[in-house]
Design brief:
The chain has 248 residues and is α+β, with helices and mostly antiparallel strands. It is 46% helix and 8% strand. The chain contains 7 helices and 4 strands, in the order H-H-H-H-H-E-E-E-E-H-H. A hairpin with a 6-residue loop joins strand 2 (185-191) and strand 3 (198-202).
């Protein structure tokens, strides 16, 4: 894990609080990138996500929690307060755990609290963006936090040798670069060893087509929240990359 535990905890707390503030008086607004959802639906979604992972970490579960234990959705007037309570519980559970403690995750390559800690940063930050966008607001994310989230996405949310897409998908059959202007870091993505997988490494292949922006821009682009200039990428290469991503 690149970010220290305390930095992850601070980011989860910060973006959970920002998410609540952006949502509180805007529950009926539509969420552009979650078709058919209102902000109220988004609040309930993130409440469920944080309950799920908070329960796994709190109880050091080796399997997902029993669905019968999942809390019922609160009335809209109680949604934000319930979310805030759940976010505080998640942060407490993660703070009390060792990142090396084994728990169930959906990632074959990392079944420990450290995976949950790192992934919940971007879960909170991206949905904070969704809620802020629905309210017509904007915010920035610490560049180091965003850069780590880009690496986490490339590691766990794109088909790889450790976690190949099933069923198989067309190979990337090329190279592309993500270049973060604010942290002076680039990531080169190429084909993995197995068909239909990828691998990445820090650094830039100067001859490869690139997508450029701040680290936060790049993360939002990976989640298909914003458009960036992809003019140097052949359209078919971009389509194949998108096809190898597990999260859109």
């Amino acid at each position: 894990m690149t970010l220290a535990k305390d930095a992850c905890l601070a980011a989860i707390a910060e973006h959970s609080a920002g998410f609540a503030a952006a949502s509180r008086d805007n529950l009926a607004a539509p969420v552009e990138h979650c078709p058919g959802w209102s902000v109220a639906d988004l609040v309930w979604h993130l409440t469920e996500v944080q309950w799920f992972w908070g329960t796994i970490v709190e109880q050091r579960l080796a399997a997902p929690p029993d669905e019968s234990l999942r809390p019922a959705r609160r009335p809209d007037g109680e949604l934000v307060a319930a979310f805030e309570q759940g976010a505080e519980r998640l942060v407490r559970a993660l703070a009390a755990a060792d990142p090396a403690d084994p728990v169930w995750t959906w990632a074959p390559a990392q079944a420990d609290v450290g995976f949950v800690l790192r992934h919940q940063v971007q879960e909170a930050a991206v949905h904070h963006w969704d809620a802020a966008h629905a309210a017509g607001c904007s915010f920035t994310v610490d560049p180091a936090v965003a850069a780590d989230a880009v690496e986490e996405f490339l590691t766990f949310s794109v088909s790889s040798d450790a976690d190949p897409a099933e069923p198989g998908r067309p190979a990337l059959d090329g190279t592309l670069v993500l270049r973060a202007t604010d942290v002076g870091t680039a990531w080169t993505v190429t084909d993995g060893a197995a068909p239909g997988t990828t691998r990445w490494e820090r650094g830039s292949d100067d001859g490869a087509p690139a997508v450029t922006g701040t680290a936060w821009d790049l993360l939002l682009w990976l989640y298909d929240r914003v458009a960036l200039d992809t003019g140097t990428l052949p359209g078919d290469l971009l389509d194949r990359f998108r096809g190898l991503c597990f999260t859109d």
